[in-house]
Write a structure and sequence with these properties.
about 350 residues; alpha/beta; Rossmann fold; 8-stranded mixed beta sheet; 13 helices; globular; disordered N terminus; AB_hydrolase_fold; carboxylic ester hydrolase activity
Length: about 350
């Protein structure tokens, strides 16, 4: 059991017409830049790829899709209601492309400027030296640097799986007494959405629950993620990330992109778990939506409840959707829940 637990605890849980006055993105020249991914992701209409240079000299890939002005957007603007920029953060084995597939077009069509970041060592972002991409602090700091230098109004962060845990650290940097020395380094947020997120205590609780209550599932998850077996088994890839009815050719396409997306693990999981839980912030400190999927093979219902309880908000669980909510067959279900929540925030601001 100890060896199984050890092998499981690796980087495995988990991607315009608006005025540009709010955003001043600073792209780097890409003509001479070679692709990190051997299977490139082709952008959709209205999307662009920029590279944000960090203080370290390394660059983050950022996929951009500006919001579209519709009659509804204009109507809300008459009420002096702003649409916060949306910044998306992926989890393990993914990159910015996982958001560009469906959710960037969806939210930009609803008036939101959208920015999907590939964390270091993932997608087309540069790879740091060492055996892993960074820590909660360095990943959150990279996101903060991008926001600080490119986004002129407080954005809303959306994070999936381990991306959700990174956002939780960002929130703690803004509102926890334990990290108050970090506060000035992190731009303010309008809110956050944690999507199938790793709980604030990490993945240890998920591991132990699977080991004792679902040993077969524990073996499958370990083999799929820790041993990366999902990369070579279509059925295991589907079971891990997607709904059972997703067609083979779609699973295959995402499987190939995931193979290419992660050159190094996001974290050293042993050091990560030793640093958790993330520091607590006062209830109501920030508007937060905790969103889960009923058919999630990775983050269970208890994990969803833990995250929601930690932030003093009710969990929202979407039916008939798997872990990769933004890529699954019914990707629009979660997107519509988030949009409704965003609309409520807009009414609150009006």
């Amino acid at each position: 059991m100890a060896s199984l637990l050890s092998s499981f605890r690796v980087d495995s849980l988990c991607g315009s017409n608006i005025s540009s006055s709010r955003i001043s993105a600073k792209p780097r020249a890409v003509l001479s830049r070679s692709n990190h991914m051997q299977i490139p992701y082709d952008l959709k209409q209205g999307q662009s790829r920029i590279f944000h240079k960090l203080p370290s000299g390394l660059s983050l890939e950022v996929l951009v899709q500006k919001g579209v002005v519709t009659e509804e957007v204009e109507r809300r603007k008459d009420k002096n209601t702003e649409y916060p920029p949306l910044v998306f953060v992926h989890g393990s084995y993914h990159a910015a492309w996982c958001w560009a597939e469906h959710w960037l077009p969806f939210f930009s069509a609803s008036g939101y400027d959208c920015y999907a970041i590939s964390l270091l060592g993932q997608g087309e972002s540069d790879t740091p030296s060492g055996s892993n991409a960074g820590t909660l602090q360095t990943h959150a700091g990279d996101i903060a640097d991008f926001i600080n230098k490119n986004v002129t109004s407080p954005p809303l962060l959306l994070g999936h799986s381990f991306g959700g845990l990174i956002i939780q650290y960002y929130i703690a940097a803004l509102g926890s007494d334990q990290l108050r020395e970090m506060k000035n380094l992190y731009p303010k947020l309008r809110g956050a959405v944690l999507i199938c997120s790793v709980p604030p205590s990490g993945n240890s609780g998920l591991v132990w629950r699977y080991l004792f209550s679902k040993p077969i599932a524990a073996f499958k998850v370990t083999r799929s993620l820790a041993a990366k077996a999902f990369q070579n088994s279509l059925s295991l890839c589907r079971e891990t990330f997607f709904s059972a009815t997703m067609e083979d050719h779609i699973v295959k396409r995402y499987q190939e992109l995931m193979k290419e997306s992660s050159r190094v693990p996001l974290f050293d999981l042993r050091k990560l778990n030793a640093s958790l839980p993330v520091p607590k912030v006062p209830d109501g400190f920030l508007d937060i939506l905790v969103l889960g999927a009923r058919d999630d093979f990775i983050v269970d219902a208890e994990g969803l409840k833990e995250t929601a309880f930690f932030y003093g908000v009710p969990p929202v669980c979407v039916e008939a959707v798997a872990h990769d909510m933004m890529l699954d067959i019914s990707w629009d279900k979660g997107a519509k829940v988030i949009l409704s929540w965003l609309n409520d925030l807009g009414k609150k601001d009006a």
